[in-house]
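Anyone able to model this chain together with heme C?
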Amino acid sequence: MSIQVKYVLVFLLTLALVGGAFVVGLTTLRDRVLRNEAEAVADQVIAFRAWVAGTGMVWVDKLAKDFPDFLAERKCDDLTFYGKNPALATRELSTIANKTALRATYLVTSDEVRQPANQPDAFEKEAIANFKEDKKLKFIDGYTGNTYRYARPIFVKKSCLKCHGQPEDAPQAVIEKYGSEKAFGYKVGDVRGIVSVKLPALNWQGLLSIFANPIAIGLVVLAFLLNFMFTQKVIIKRLGSLTSDVTAIAKGKLSTPLNYTDPKKSNDEIDHAYHAVNLLKKSMVIIMKKLKKK
Ligand code: HEC
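re: yes, here you go
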């Protein structure tokens, strides 16, 4: 194999390794960006729940067509108000968000759902099981197909016990609507459920396609040409003329001029090789003279 072929192979291998490093870096970046985005969504969901919880319930005087559920009813003069507790209000908000969202969708779910629409999928069930096993886990994330998944635990606080502790303590409306079996018997600190966020993710083909643009390809071709020209000019051409010079000297043409920079002024190894050949040539001249004298 010529140096040029070897060099091209090394170049391609280097390119593949650098490309691999890039894809690994981009994958990490993608994971971070998606996690940040999912965290922001989960923060919003938790903040919204906290806001509703802080007001007790959200009272509305009209039940929208898609959202007929309520947990309490109050009459004021000739107006009727319907109360939506945090979980209910969050579910209704998530239904709207999931219908219109361009990216993030979310669900508050549990391994013991009161509301059938909150049913967890396989990823969510596993996340809940992991949070129950390790209470210190802050979040769990991963991918199902091309979807990024993120889950954060929701713990039971004292204020939750009214509706998730013992059924006897629960408001009548909860028992009437959801029965006295579902999602009761929790203690403070238990994992009640999770906030689950879904985001569309790039797969590795998508990541690779980032490089498939004219500028990136042009830069790689430019790098290749630069390397090719460099090896041609600095190594291969000079080795070629060194070879023909040495061949000429070997054939007796001791006057062949050797073009190189003095090693004192150059760190180039080929200049050093030239210099060695020059020394050899000079010794040959001396030996020839001595031989002629004899
Ligand atoms: C006023 C009663 C009430 C209180 C207080 C309450 N919840 Fe709930 N919770 C409900 C009801 C009712 C549902 C079902 C809502 C629906 O239909 O979507 C529910 C549902 C949930 C869900 C969704 C899973 C499911 O069962 O469908 C989670 C998670 C949850 N609650 C956590 C909590 C936590 C944590 C607290 C305390 C911070 C709390 N809840 C306080 C009544 C309550």
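The two ends are 46 Å apart (CA to CA).
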